[in-house]
Known about the structure:
Structural class: alpha/beta
Radius of gyration: 20 Å
Largest sheet: 9 strands, mixed
Shape: globular
Strand content: 25-35%
Amino acid sequence: MKTDDFDYYLPEELIAQVPLKNREESRLLVLDKDTGEKIDDKFYNIINYLNKGDVLVLNDTKVIPARVIGTKEDTGAVIELLLLKNSEKDNWECLVKPAKRVKMGTIISFGNGELKAKCIGIGEEGIRYFTFIYNGIFYEILDKLGTMPLPPYIKEKLDDQSRYQTVYAKNIGSSAAPTAGLHFTKELLKKIEDKGVIVTYITLHVGLGTFRPVNVEDVTKHKMHSEFYSMTKETSDILNKAKEEKRRLIAVGTTTTRTLETIMTKYNTFKECSGWTDIFIYPGYEFKAIDSLITNFHLPKSTLIMLVSALSSKNIILDTYKYAVENKYRFFSFGDAMFITKINCK
Length: 346
């Protein structure tokens, strides 16, 4: 299986640069994962495709202002850090630009020295390990000095930082938003619950594993970066009961999907747990947890388009993406949504 097999043509003007004024006004493309049947709709009508008893699972991670720009104390060179993973206390794994300027012992200063980072380890592909030095509360300082880590394909400035955050974001720790959830409003979630759909949450802190490009020709040779996940007993009980009663589990986003599939693969059931996952889902994978998926339109040749191809098929997904391009859907983080399911499934 080749990485190039998951390529498709995308005009640059279809890459959404800003979020819509109203979250739920995004377009929705409903796709039958088995037949390829398509329905064009609006996201606020997602409720029409959900049934009483369905379980909707969302990722309640909260994005931190993970991009910070500082200077090397010895030379004054400008260095950018993207905080990826909090390993312990004040130690973080970071993606660095330019990484070649940062050696063991390098100290980077941010703001007026309110925050400093000392390099304590060297990783591959621009990864460095730092211990942060500061007085006060780390996340308050980060709020002051950092910015939201928008993907590189978004060139426009985000005026309202909360728009790169889901309305249900709760647990601090992500370096990127679980973007499928950006379409939901509190009002829409209330309507969904009022219909009898059960809404529950997991946490996966989105890091490099989600958005690192696939740089190998053979898909199976790609290695995912590990990301932290957790599930509560309340959620595990809801999911296990739904499975027993053969009710649909609908994941909101690929991060939720990866968490649910990781836990089911590891334990053959859902349970209260936490850990690190580097699960890589691509065609040939047999889904053990989810039935349907709400997601966005993903980058060509990415692990995410491979995941959705596994849920449906590569041919159906690429045909659907061609259809979306022809019908001028908006792509990527601030773009429109897909619901990959079985249409008319009751």
